[in-house]
Amino acid sequence: MSDESEAEGPPIRTTIEDGVETFEATIQGERIQWDKGLTYSRHLQTDQLLNSQTPVSDKPDEMLFIIMHQTMELWIKLMLHEVRSAIKSLREDDLDRAGKTLDRTATIMRHMIHSWEVLATLTPHDFLTFRGFLRKASGFQSQQYRELEFLLGLKRADLILVHNGDDAATTALHAALNAPSLYDEVLGALSRGGAAIPAEKLNRDWSQPYEACEKIEQAWHAIYTAPDQNWPLYALGEKVTALEYYFQEWRFKHMKTVARVIGHKHGTGGSSGVSYLVKALDLQFFPELWSMRTRMSAPKEGGDYGNGCPV
Length: 311
Hints:
The chain is an alpha+beta fold. The chain has helices spanning 40-44, 46-50, 62-91, 95-119, 124-131, 143-152, 167-177, 182-192, 199-202, 214-225, 231-262, 274-280, 287-295; strands at 2-5, 12-17, 20-27, 30-35.
C-alpha cells in the first residue's frame, strides 16, 4: 500500500511496513525515511531531556551550570553501567571482554576530564550572580558519584547519611556498599588465574574499606616482572590502573575548576571546598597497583661504560 502526499517541499511517499505507517522523501538528493513507530525523539526521550533544566534564578549563567552537571550525571550513569558489565565479565573470567569494557570506561573518564574546561569559563562574578540561590544544594549530594566510588572500591559508609530521607538513594548506596567492588573482582580473577591472593581478601566484609596488603603487592609485582608469562593478568592490571589514573585527573581538574571559580570559599553543601577536593587526591581504589611500581627495578645491562663509549 502506498500513497503520494502533496505538501510544501518534495513529495512524500507513504507506505505501510510491518503494520506501521512509513514515509519516504528525497531531500537535497538524499532518500530519507521515517515512520510513526520509533522516532529519534521518542527513543532518546528528548522532550523530557530538554525540559529538565529548571533554573532557580533568572541569571543567564545558571543554565551552563545546570547542563554541565546534568551531562556529568549522564556520563556517570554510563560508567556505572560499564563497570557493572566489567564486573560480570570478570566473574566469568572473560578478561578480554572485561578489558574492552574497562577501556571504554577510561575513555568516558577522559571525556569527563575535558568537560571541566567548559565549566571553567564561568567567572567568579558569573557564579556569584546565582550561587546564593543554590542554598545547600551541592555535588556532595550526588548519589551516582558516591555509588561509583563504592563500585570502584572506595567504601565510606558514613557518606550515605547525606541521603537520609531518600529511600531509593540509600537503598542503592547500601547495595553498592555491601557488594564486592571492581577491585575485589579483579583480585578474584587474579586468584583464579594462579596469583597468590590471600584467602581473607577473597572472602571479607565487602562494606568495609579495602586495606592494602603486602602479599597482593607481591602478587602484582610477580605479574609485572614477567608480563609475557602473565599477559592476560598484566593487561588487566594496566587497564584498571588507567581507570584510576584518569579518575584522579578528573578529580584534579574538578579541584582546579572550583579554585578558579570560587577560590577557597566553603562549598554550598558546607564542605571546605578546594581543601576537601585536595584531600580526595590522596584516595586510591587500587593501592597495590601503584605501590608495586616502586618495588620494580631494572636489571643491570650493557657493557663496561668506564672504558669509553659503550658502542
